[in-house]
Amino acid sequence: MHAAIVVFPGSNREADVARALRLSGAKVSMVWHADTALPAGTDLAVLPGGFSYGDYLRCGAIAGRAAAMDAVRAHAARGGLVLGICNGFQILCESGLLPGVLMRNVDRRFICHRQTLRVERTDTRFARAYTAGQVIDVCVAHGEGNYFADPDTIARIEGEGRVAFRYCDEAGQTTIAANRNGSLNSIAGIYSEKANVLGMMPHPENFVEGLIGGTDGRGLFESLAA
Amino acid sequence: MKARITVTLKTGVLDPQGKAIEAALKSLGIAGIEGVRQGKVFDLEVAAADSASAQETLKAACEKLLANTVVENYAIEIA
């Protein structure tokens, strides 16, 4: 597994996701946002968390139109894997690779806490190390994670089974209390039509080592590297 | 020529910032405001032969970057 992490001005989680990928056996290289190509042999393009371009205009709006994103779009069109975490998810929505948009959290606060998620699908390259309906303990840290799309788009995403993860309580129930940013249908992450692109607000890379407090994020990187 | 682009949230899209501003206005004792929706204004200088070609340039700017048409509307005024 060769992973290329695209670094934008203002990205700040690239080292963490690189560490998580390497722990699972992936080879990792960094790509600058102005580069026009991904390294030869790239299997997975990663858009890391952070505050690209200081969240100017809209979160992910300027990064979504960066030169490297043309290479990421071409990679995705060839069936290549793309993972966007947090700001990376916002960039995927802004770039047109995933539908919808991440709006300001419903309570207007930046939220930063441990979060349980329900794994909705395990037949993908991103989640095959998990079990169906498994509740995983990861982290969220964002001000704009409130997933929104028009009703037709939501119906299409749900109808096609493209929800990857939902915010839930410890028992796996998608309660209002567990959905703190106000996302429609408690959506925490979605796949593209062919499930080769995944965008998610939570940070699986935070929890890959017991020393740090949890290992439930490891399944995602192990799924990819396997 | 000078142009102004106004980007606003579509009807029905939740605007937590607008709600916060509305509450702040109430707390200042400014009565009679029944709703606030926050938007963005861009003032642009356009080099164009006529307003039709400026319109075309500005429309592309809105569609490609300035507005996210999933949740936002835009209006173009050319001075």
Low-confidence stretches of chain A at least 5 residues in length (pLDDT < 50)?
none
Q: Record the strand order, biggest sheet of chain B.
A: 2-1-3
If classified by CATH, what would the architecture of chain B be? 2-Layer Sandwich
- The CATH homology group name of chain A: Class I glutamine amidotransferase (GATase) domain
Structural summary, described in words:
- The complex is a heterodimer of chains A (226) and B (79).
- Chain A has 226 residues and is of the alpha/beta class.
- Chain A has 5 helices and 11 strands; from the N terminus they run βαββαβαββββαβββα.
- In chain A, the strands form 2 sheets. Chain A has a 9-stranded mixed beta sheet, with helices on both faces.
- Chain A is globular, with a radius of gyration of 16 Å.
- With 79 residues, chain B is an alpha+beta fold.
- Helix content of chain B is 35%, strand content 27%.
- Chain B is built from 2 helices and 3 strands.
- In chain B, strands 2-1-3 form a 3-stranded antiparallel beta sheet, covered by helices on one side.
- Chain B is elongated and about 50 Å long.
- Chains A and B meet through loops of A and helix 1 and helix 2 of B.
